[in-house]
Design brief:
The structure is a homodimer. Chain A is of the alpha/beta class. Chain A contains 13 helices and twelve strands. Chain A is globular. Chains A, B: It comes from Aquamicrobium zhengzhouense.
Chain lengths: ~400, ~400
């Protein structure tokens, strides 16, 4: 593949937060009616002004700075003291041991971890099973390394208490030679959590076919009341065949520090460090110190954060479900909502632009997550509660205005 | 190439700062005499406890944190306000315009910029000319993307006022199909600056053969007294064929924030942003704010920093040149010294381990920079002055002790 082709496939204009680089020529001709007033809401990512970073993060960063050279120049995989602290907490959280010395790497954000995980498992022509829908970068990562993507459908609409993975398709992907399976749990964008049965089946199939599983658990701490979460790494699977990815960028609102971790397979973590050495050297040294706050928040802080998100979720669902033809499954974890819209008189792509221009509401198009989700849009509802509800009310008004 | 082969070529055990992961089994058998007492010095990177970060960096970081979401979630290429500020200063420094909107990207360190620059210019089988010796990651980056490296020799030993690039070899590399030429100026490890004539010749050859030039100018601000520096981007060359890389990690001791910039070719910067979106999303948002201090240090601060480094440089040269058989060219910029050692009774690789164990002195082996430099070692002399001089005196003592 030529370098031009390779980069033509990496478009980011619709990626969350990049709308500022979009042109919207000619869209005015399609517009109907007046602008809707209200506080603009950018649902493409969480608002860290509405849900503030973990208390004390800046103080811990400053303490890291004060440590000087020791904190600025860590091993490429991160400071050993911090790795030891984090490994213990992640071991308790996930229910399976984490080796601080050889089985964990600190990365610049979970994006950094995902990049390294795909880069170290996927050579040109290797087959990789990925879910549809799933986090938009997954597809791009596989394409960048010239892997061959085998899509597996997630039927979250009709899945009952399951996330809705099509296990027959997953097995067929392994039969067809997929050596790697990459998925997010909870699913980004649909907000569904894989059931214990689904995780057991994934572990069993991956083991039978000798595949490596990379599971992105970025949102696994923000689990709504009464729900259970099953960690793949604590199930019946060879730990050397699993990489788990997490980070404090979302629930903890620490994205501005760019921190993530990958843990599990020592062989793969070792490769990931070799690659990180030429990609970015290390996660920012002083930022690494902020991981000291992770899983060590004051009592009740996380419960309250979950409660507040659940309240926003429920209010948005009420508004969305009041709109004829909208389908919205209840998110079980995380802060994403992924409703389907009814048929409209304009294309969904144009509707999303109109929504931004006429209602001050930015969302991410479903096509970023799956070619089969053009009628869906993703919201990150980690926002100011009132502003988010008002914004979704404006969305509903525009759905009615542009209804086919 | 299989993924195993690919990563076998990315060894980092001898990379600066990674010595902690090295085993040194059996080295005791080769040791002669006693341990030399003294403050341990890690010359593999600069000591930010000896040369502190730019005054005010933590305050500017904290102000970025206080800005909240706006600073945490920037465009992938970085905050536009900061890009505008930095573009103007880089334009003044390099003597050629920098386009803030389309011609500059903020990256996680200059390593991040180098990675993106090679990734966006080098497809499998593409030929890339690189200098020998040069920064050790250059070779690894070309190998990682399965490019074909064409080495060009830098004869810094016999170059007079030139850096010593073999221009015939560079032209031959272009004739043989190299589309990209990557080099550091000042050269890492040798500390030499390419003369105006050499830069003009590089520009002329690259233009004639239509090659893209990536120039790593990380140390270009730390220029010793009486010397001139020629910016390639301000010479006779199509600006779309040049990427310049800089950052505040070294001279300004801001490495703990992980900040770099690449600027020049709009086409390549655009690709680099697309790739950054899946590699690390962006340079840490709050860290980006620290660039506000860059090229805006208080009057006299940089002059004083240069003066102090020059004083260390001169003292180390005196000690090294007092040792029979050592050759050391005077660095013209930056804080690297790259002396050649005389013949020893142990291998140079073993000597470097012995040096660390017997004298508490860590250096980087010449083989990291060129296969032809096994007899050389690299020091980063941005260290406590007295400790550095004492450490190099211990080195000289050990050279005498292990002399062949």
């Amino acid at each position: 593949m030529s370098i031009e082709e390779k980069f033509a496939r990496l478009g980011t204009d619709n990626a969350p937060g990049q709308e500022v680089r979009q042109a919207a020529d000619g869209i005015e001709k399609l517009m109907r009616g007046d602008t809707l007033e209200g506080t603009p809401v950018d649902f493409s990512h969480g608002d860290v002004d509405a849900f503030l970073p973990t208390p004390g993060s800046l103080e811990v960063f400053s303490a890291g700075y004060a440590m000087g050279a020791k904190q600025a120049y860590t091993e490429y995989r991160g400071d050993i003291g911090i790795r030891e602290m984090v490994a213990e907490r992640l071991s308790a959280f996930t229910g399976a041991p984490v080796d601080a010395r050889d089985g964990l790497i600190i990365t610049p954000g979970t994006q950094g971890a995902l990049f390294l995980a795909i880069a170290t498992t996927t050579a040109r022509g290797d087959k990789v099973a990925i879910m549809q829908p799933d986090y938009f970068a997954n597809r791009k990562l596989v394409e960048f390394f010239e892997g061959e993507m085998i899509p597996v459908q997630l039927d979250y609409v009709n899945a009952g208490n399951n996330a809705g993975i099509n296990l027959n398709e997953l097995e067929q992907a392994f039969k067809d030679g997929a050596k790697v399976f990459l998925f997010s749990n909870p699913n980004n964008p649909a907000g569904v959590v894989y059931s214990a049965d689904e995780i057991a089946a994934i572990a069993e199939l991956a083991s039978r076919y000798g595949a490596t599983v990379i599971v992105d658990q970025l949102y696994s701490r923000l689990l709504y009341s009464g729900l259970a979460y099953t960690h793949l790494r604590a199930s019946k699977i060879d730990p050397e065949n699993v990489i788990t990815i997490m980070g404090p960028s979302k629930t903890e609102s620490l994205s501005g520090y760019r921190l993530g971790v990958a843990f599990g397979s020592k062989k793969l973590i070792d490769r990931m460090e070799k690659l990180q050495a030429i990609v970015s050297l290390r996660a920012g040294g002083y930022s690494q110190a902020v991981l000291r706050t992770w899983f060590a928040e004051e009592a009740g802080w996380m419960d309250e954060r979950i409660r507040l998100h659940q309240a926003i979720r429920d209010d948005l669902l009420t508004v969305l479900r009041g709109c004829d033809g909208v389908f919205a499954r209840t998110p079980q974890a995380g802060s994403y909502l992924f409703p389907r819209l009814p048929k409209l008189a304009v294309s969904y792509a144009d509707f999303i632009k109109i929504l931004r221009l006429q209602a001050g509401v930015s969302v991410t198009p479903g096509t970023e997550f799956s070619p089969h989700c053009a009628d869906s849009i993703r919201f990150n509802f980690s926002q100011d509660h009132k502003a988010a509800v008002a914004a979704v009310e404006r969305l509903v008004t525009l759905v009615d205005r542009y209804r086919a």
